[in-house]
Specification:
By secondary structure, this protein is mainly β. The protein is built from 4 helices and 16 strands. It has helices spanning 49-58, 76-93, 254-259, 294-297, and strands at 3-31, 68-73, 104-109, 127-154, 159-183, 191-194, 202-209, 218-223, 227-232, 268-269, 279-282, 291-293, 299-303, 307-314, 320-332, 337-345. The protein starts with a strand and ends with a strand. Residues 27-68 are annotated as: Disordered.
Length: 347
Amino acid sequence: MEIQTSQINLSSTHKFKSEYTKEESLKVWTRRPNRGRGRGQSDQVKLSDEAQKKLAKSQQGEKSEQAQEIVFEMSEEDKFKLELLKDMLEKIKGEKVEIEIAEKIVIKADKVVIKNQGLENKEKEKNWAVEYKYHESYTEEESTSFKAAGTVKTKDGRKIDFALNLAMNRKFSQEKNIRLVAGNKKLIDPLVLNLDGGAVELNSDKIEFDLNSDGQEEEIATLKSGSAFLALDKNKDGQINNGGELFGPTSGQGFAELAKYDDDNNQWIDEGDKIFSQLQLWAGQEKDGGLISLQDAGVGAIHLNSVSTPFELQDEQNQEQGVINRSSIYLTESGEAKTIQKIDLKA
């Protein structure tokens, strides 16, 4: 082929984009022993036996209406636990980590009520927890397009018209996530059925409810319309009294708790299992009432296998209300598949 004349148009476009994000957070919290108390009760501070003796000695023969100062100091055991966490973080990150700890916390109380539980009854251990989250991601995208069009005439009289498009694309993504939790605070993660087929959503409204069955009520976020807790009214009083009548708050493994009732071992909770007719859905708005049976809700069968689906639930101020941990499906009587999820509620 010999080219006599030609008219060629060549063009190209190129795009490149990269994005790097790094986020980390460290949360330390404890729950006061009298949290969730009823209205009208006075603040009470429980002191150790040794502190009681010291306080009693200082108050012998003297009564004072003045405010008193109660000093709390972190125990050596708790300091040791935080130091262990600090060492772990430094090894993971490869850099020095600083954790500031207050040496003392002083509370002024108008009234100090001493409860002497005796030597035989040990004071309940305070709930504490430390949570560290680290997220790092890098994405890189590049695209190039090449276009060619033209007309060519050869010496032997041929005319060639052509158009050529070439696209080249590549994408690279790398992500690193670390979540460390330390403490004696149990995971509070009930199972929730999403009746509208979507995912769990939480309201900013709170309800006082004894989610971890320790006899004290905590403030937890309520479920938005379209979702409900899976419940078992164990004492058949027509209400959900605490987290022990939900699936998950007691053990931290809601799906495993439910699987214990799979009589025929088919990986489903269905009409072939005795518990199916006893299971109910609780909207979580109030303890008294609000229960409907699975049959009335149109639930046909709940699948027991689940997969990890970590997703944080934030409020309008971007404050964490809870975390979706795992997800599975359930089937309605009409054959539609919808979701059931295990969520960690922040109490």
